Amino acid sequence: MSHRMRTLTEPFKIKMVEPLRVTTEEYRNDILKKSGYNPFLLRSHDVFIDLLTDSGTGAMSDKQWGGIMTGDESYAGARSWEHLESVVKDLTSMPYILPTHQGRAAERILYGILGGKVKVFISNTHFDTTRANIEFTGATAIDIVYDVAKDPEIDLPFKGNIDLEKLQVLIKEHGRENIAAVIITVTNNSSGGQPVSMANVKGLRKICDEHNLLMVIDGCRIAENAYFVKHREPGFETKTYKEIAQEMLALGDAFIMSAKKDGLVNIGGLLTMKDEELSIKCKNLLIISEGFTTYGGLAGRDMEALAIGLEEVFDADYLHYRIRSTAYLGENLKAKGVPVVWPIGGHAVYIDAKKLYNSIPVEQYPGQALVCDLYTKGGIRCVEVGSVMFGKYDEAGKLIPAQNELVRLAIPRRVYTQSHIDYVLDVFDDILDMRKQTTGYRITYEPPFLRHFTARFEKI
Ligand code: F0G
Q1: Residues enclosing ligand 1, CB less than 6 A?
Q2: Of the N and C termini of the chain, which has fewer Cβ atoms inside 10 Å?
Q3: Domain range holding 346?
Q4: Hey, which bits of 353-405 come out as E strands?
């Protein structure tokens, strides 16, 4: 007998609730205008469904909250540190484990040591904070995700893969001595949350061995990546998600994790490595800037919750629900005729706003228009990933647009229920109805760097 399709249900029940405030469209129109049409400037109090990020926005389990109460707050050698260290050693098979307050602190420490002028870092796609930490040292960051991944529609299983042929060319061009590290980000956040295959990571390991290059895994979504490997890559069907993650992490020389994602905690980060000499340099910087080696920037209770979160995230029922509920949103948007980046990634659905709002020219930021419409129509907050975020100007002050005009709907872990997701889908019916009437935006204020956070707009 074939399995009937059943409603996708959360594999947990709710023990504590946080009220959401229902507002009117008129109110939201007014508030958004006052916020310069930039949802980053909204107060969370005015947001109904917050899909701005999946980072640090998840809900902890009863077990994790239990850990919060029993965390050991000793300065040195805390029991909670020993717990976290043993969980992370088991996961990464790396001997040197450093706790940090979040992902970018681990990046600053490692890339601060490895970087510097003339140095080059190569990645499938550097996340913004990764690139910023590298460039801050004077080094260069080069992205070489496979070209096919840049096509939002092409249906391939591992669109996060790094282009190994391009890597060989870059090694010749820059010289191995100038390459500080190769960073593989799993899943690849900046290219749509797309996964990386085990074969690609193994291929990368081989090249790094041949040229004696340091291979770093940015694995803040390592469990979500493991789900895709199990279900899309031949040979992994019978392995557990944790075994797949362990196999992948064992291939790296170092591992960086923003624990705010698959660590299932609201704050935390990790930096682990195999090389003792490098670990000593990192520990020295950690002590100066984050805290002693047995707590980094974290409280004992944070480490306890993280140790538990890193076990829970590999639960098969949890991961199935997690990946399928993101896909449910994406697949149903697609069925309604909303153009989405395909296939759907792990933590977010990306909408092709250039296509959806094809009457708005890129100079008038169709992605920002969609972000604003989703807020006014439904109280939904999300982020533009297009020319507001990545656009530059030429010498004449004309916009050089980004490659794509996307909008990211990132799903917090274990926070919203299936009916919240159905509500988001309903709001898109309004978006589809009004898409020919909606207008673009012009920027009235922008800072010199990372303008999307604080820019202000007006309606055209
Ligand atoms: N690496 C990746 C791949 C990330 O997605 C992030 C954060 C970081 C590093 C930095 O970690 O925030 O703990 O310092 N991504 C968040 C996002 C902010 O919304 O995608 P952090």
Answers
A1: 53, 55, 102-104, 127, 129-130, 185, 189, 218, 220, 258, 260, 269
A2: N
A3: 25-54+316-459
A4: 380-381, 383-385, 392-393, 399-400
